[in-house]
Design goal:
By secondary structure, this protein is mainly α. About 70% of the residues lie in helices and about 0% in strands.
């Protein structure tokens, strides 16, 4: 067997094994890491196919409307398993198989038949990140968008229109892939083609939703976010968490949003202020990177740190802070490792640590966190501090990107 073939087989074996192990851990870890899939996604899909309300169409929904598509696909995939696993078990198995299949397709695009050393490194990183992050890397809607963004990022140069279409579709499932599309527009390759394709896909989606009767609920996923409080995992919630053991802050469950939030003096003000903070931070990154692009920064050098900075900014300034948000960080780092492996080592290492700390918080230490125990608060605080550090690393890399475009980074 050739050495290259052996490496490729090893990568695939590990990748599939990691998915199988992670899927199984969802059944044994505490705090129901698969809860969203069976308690939220499956009921939404069942209601849509059984004549009940259709989220995003007949009622306002927290997600963009295309998020319902994978839930419905999994509902159909689960049918053969219902007889011996029951409705919930069948849906869980089908969801794991669906996400694994999507990941495998993206993994195949990443590796090809004879992957370069940077692509092999990116593949090892992906497997490690999934393993460290645990079941929420599979059993959340964010897991559907990850392979979409990976493929789109790899195709931005060779197939820009298709890449823009995939990123736009991804943004209509979960908003964050739009940040990668925005990074591609700023970084400066095929801008017109990207814009036209994104607008065309968006127009087609909006037209379809209007025909289905969405109308007043068309952009409900934006208004729904406005009513959220400060979720306990959010970076900005860290100081309030330290007040929980002393009794000057409380953790309460929101039945409207289905998350645990901070109840404390000033928490609501912080939650409101974070929206403005997100706009300011994202705008600042865009201005900085736009200036770099205008001065001739190379696309391959500017795009990865810009994409990571935008995604990290969406997490750090977010009042939600759900643990599955760490999934968002994986795609920009994969792209960075492919394009500029040496400079990507530090952010890749930070993201791996973030994945491990996040798993320690949820699901492993979540019960202790809800009870205000010190150890999980320390772990979560460390995770949140490291998220801020990652944002600084990304912005620093953008600042250090040569403005003359003379740097020779690997092309896609």
């Amino acid at each position: 067997m050739k050495r290259g073939t052996g490496r490729l087989i090893a990568l695939w074996v590990v990748f599939i094994a990691v998915h199988a192990l992670t899927a199984w851990l969802g059944w044994v870890y505490p705090s129901q890491p698969m809860g969203d899939v069976v308690l939220v996604y499956e009921p939404w899909a069942t209601a849509a196919v059984s004549g009940g309300p259709i989220v995003g169409i007949t009622e306002t929904w927290v997600y963009p409307q295309l998020a319902l598509a994978p839930m419905l696909l999994v509902k159909a995939m689960a049918v053969p398993f219902v007889g011996f696993l029951g409705v919930s078990g069948a849906y869980l198995v089908a969801w794991a198989l669906f996400v694994t299949a999507l990941d495998a397709l993206a993994f195949a695009v990443l590796l090809g038949r004879s992957p370069s050393a940077p692509r092999r490194t990116a593949a090892w990183f992906w497997s490690a990140a999934l393993l460290l992050l645990g079941p929420i890397a599979l059993y959340r809607l964010d897991a559907v968008t990850l392979p979409i963004v990976v493929v789109a990022g790899l195709w931005l140069v060779s197939r820009p229109a298709l890449a823009a279409a995939l990123l736009t579709i991804g943004a209509w499932i979960k908003i964050w892939p739009g940040a990668v599309l925005l990074a591609a527009l700023i970084a400066g390759r095929h801008r017109l083609r990207l814009i036209v394709t994104a607008l065309a896909v968006t127009a087609a989606v909006v037209a379809g939703l209007l025909l289905l009767g969405a109308r007043e609920h068309l952009f409900g996923f934006l208004t729904q976010q406005g009513g959220r409080g400060l979720q306990i995992e959010a970076v900005a919630a860290t100081p309030f968490l330290w007040a929980v053991p002393g009794g000057s802050a409380r953790i309460e469950y929101s039945f409207d949003i289905l998350t645990f939030q901070i109840a404390a003096p000033g928490a609501d003000i912080v939650a409101v202020a974070l929206t403005g903070a997100m706009v300011v931070v994202v705008a600042g990154i865009l201005v900085l990177s736009g200036w770099k692009a205008i001065r001739g920064a190379a696309f391959a050098r500017l795009l990865p740190p810009l994409a990571l900075s935008l995604v990290a900014a969406l997490i750090v300034t977010n009042k939600v802070g759900s643990p599955q948000f760490q999934v968002w960080l994986i795609a920009p780092v994969i792209l960075w490792l492919v394009l500029d492996r040496v400079r990507a080592v530090l952010p890749a290492a930070v993201v791996l640590v973030l994945c491990a700390l996040t798993c320690l918080v949820y699901p492993i230490g979540y019960d202790g966190l809800l009870h205000g125990q010190i150890l999980p608060i320390v772990v979560l605080s460390a995770r949140n501090l490291l998220l801020a550090v990652l944002l600084v690393i990304g912005i620093r890399a953008v600042v250090r990107t040569p403005a003359n475009g003379s740097d020779r980074s690997q092309s896609l």
